[in-house]
Amino acid sequence: MAITGAADLLATWEAGLAEAPTGRALLLHRTARPDVDATTLPVLPVGEREADLFALRRALFGERMQVRLGCAGCGEDMEFDLDAGEFARSLSGPDDSIVRVEQDGWDVRFRLPGVADLTAAARSADPRAALLARCLVSAARDGADVAAGELPVPVQIRIAEAVEAADPGADVTLNIACPECGAATRAELDIASYLWTELDTWARDLLLDVHLLATSYGWSEPEILALSPLRRRYYLELCADV
């Protein structure tokens, strides 16, 4: 993964200000995977996207992720650190985007859902049926082809289990024991939202730095952004000493 420059990151942030969370997540994924066509990213397995975003977070802001969570038992705030690099490695994308289920004469091939599939299915009156229809590659019973709507519930359950096993990174759930009362609290870790919050803070701080340096030295924004973070910080310290 190439480290994105400050100007490009600011452009991503600016574009994301007008987007809903799903649009911001896609912008971040484009930043993480510039080697992949933008139209392909929304249909990649969800776990692959999560791994990409954890890797991007590591590249931009380092390994350590600070998380704050309220205890479900006593309500106390819990603060702890997570390792972005460890998550990126453990959530590496699935080896194959197609899972196969064979049961009682059924032979089903199913594509691991991507974000676009989940989003479209959620808008349907029957999300499960919509997801089956979108991601079903083929289904046959005793050699005869059948449609998604003909799959019995036990086979649908087996498909769901196979998908979860093949793409465990699609659902990153934390299970934290409270140091005060010992109760376990489960919470989903939304890396896209977490990373966007960090990017938003970084961008606003950087623009303040640009304002201060432009005011003091008369430099343009591109000239200031072309400086390394270390040199920008040094010039800011000089401004404070004046």
Automatic annotation (TrEMBL):
<dbReference type="InterPro" id="IPR024364">
    <property type="entry name" value="Baseplate_phage_T4-like"/>
</dbReference>
<protein>
    <recommendedName>
        <fullName>Phage baseplate protein</fullName>
    </recommendedName>
</protein>
<dbReference type="Pfam" id="PF12322">
    <property type="entry name" value="T4_baseplate"/>
</dbReference>
